Amino acid sequence: MSQTSRIGGALNTIDCVLTEDDPQPSYFEHPIRVSIGDGNMRYFVGSSLVTTIVFLLLPALGVLGLKSMARASTGSSTARGVLKIASAAYSAFTLYFAPSVSGSSVTALGHASTTLEGIISVVCLLVSGIGVPGAVVFFLRRGHFSANCITSSSSSSSSSSSSDSSGNSSSEDDDPSSTAKSDESSSQQNSSSSSSKGSISMAGERLNFRNKNANSCFVETFAPFFDGTTDTERYATRLYFVEDLVSANIIAAIGGTRPSSAAQCGSVASALLVVSVAHAVYILRIRPYRTKLDTIFVSLFAVNQVILAAVCTYTTTSDKASDESLLRIIGYLVLIQLATFFIETIVQCYWAFTLSQKRQALAGAVDS
Question: Count H helices, E strands: the chain?
């Protein structure tokens, strides 16, 4: 989801000097264009402000849902639904828009023509660059992995059957064959106790999550932020979402620097290359993603980003910003990045559909 901002940050290093011909952010910099005020940076400021307001509204919905769940003795399905939707929306929205806000805010802050533009830019930058990643880190801290926020009437009876039947399962690649095998074996072993087992989410089973309460709203609610990791016990892997978000924020902010002199563009591009390499090292070295499919696509994104940043750095430092061959290479790299994103989406949807069909077939076999 953060690929567009990474591309925008890289492209800004080619012609990084902000001129009067750039009154609005490009769609790579920020997909929303809203004008606020009459200053030079009114589109950059307006787009960032609108997005920041949504950043604050989505967690508010989650908090309301959390309070409703806490008041309900047996758990409110409506409140849990609100939390799930807010969590999924927040994870997707932040990865896509937070880097855009960071880049646009840095641009507006560096070229603000009014005090109001400067203040709004600082606030938006603090929310997107510190507040949003900080909120995710707060919710993914270790204490929350043993916290209960729903008291189910059947928790005492279901917890014993859940813990006895679950055992110590290891994380497997979420492909049709391995998942089908594991689902089949677990269905055969747990068919006698499935009726008393609580509605624990699939994320909890995958991550070897064990809790005294089978209805753990934490796993159900915040699964979009950590369900894809290989190991929840390690911060380096559990915070893969934060790493992706922070690195994209930094890349977008570097690209949004937009210095007043073309001589500084080389330094901007070099800084972007350093961050891109650091992100690629994290992905290839730590390998935080649980499935092979996620690892392949994310690694491809990271390596392509490094190549794109390297070409942009060479273009700016060698004064070849008008070299058509280099610009063509950059264009191809951008197309690869965008095409891979859509290909991954199609493959993931097909994969999810295949898994769903296999699970339904296994469930029917167990019931019969």
Answer: 14, 0
